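fyi for ur records
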Amino acid sequence: MQKTILLASSTLVMSLYVACQTKPNEDAIIFPSQNPITEYKIDKSTPIWADEFDYTGAPDSKKWGYDIGGHGWGNQEKQYYTKDLKNARVEDGKLIIEAIKEKYENNDYTSARLVSKGKGDFLYGRIEIKAKLPKGRGTWPAAWMLATEQSYGASYWPDNGEIDIIEHVGFDQNRIHGNIHTKAFNHSIGTNKGNNIMAESDVSDNFHVYACEWLPDKITIELDGKPYFTFNRPSNDWKEWPFDKKFHILLNIAIGGGWGGQKGIDDSIFPQRMEVDYVRVYPAVK
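which gave:
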């Protein structure tokens, strides 16, 4: 009996030794959130960051930068993004992002993509955008969020996440989409998480309030105060929930592309504009 116990003990020690020497499978590692889930609520008393566009000229350089270029942006888009006033300006209390049909460095259209990266970066809160969208086949306006830094995975996208507060394609007027993208959940592998809603009045003739409430345990997207998509945190695995790091805001009109151009581009519609009355960010507090 004693010999049997000794043999079993030796086998156990050897098994533990081998296990300790085995390199872990890095793909299986789950990185816990840096922000333990706690009860949060949105404080709508005062924004922590906002642009009311109560000035004239170029967008406020203390709040907005630009993405510049015309290489398709990973979506086969047809526009060149510039920082010219003709494509992005503030007038009559509104931010105007305007898409124009014109040749520019091998592209057939110009537009603008504003980014708050490094000037407005947030962890949790409520993001509100009051906007009127462009109209016509081939337009693809958006208001969305990306991670400010690459904290997870080998690729910036989709590993570090994306939150789409507004997506609209001109061939499907008045239908608004809200989506999230992560390494585990994204359209490129057919696992996208999102929903859509039909607006009660025309989104190109009227201003609507588009909002996202982002908390440590869920993301909810709304149209005019009506929630229509909620993504509950499924786990602490960064592949499913990378939304525990700072994100920033993007505003743009794309032309054509893998989604916006599915039914072609109607060149008779240009120029087209997105008008933004305000962007406000409210904090999430414990």
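The longest helix spans residues 2-21. thats all i got for now
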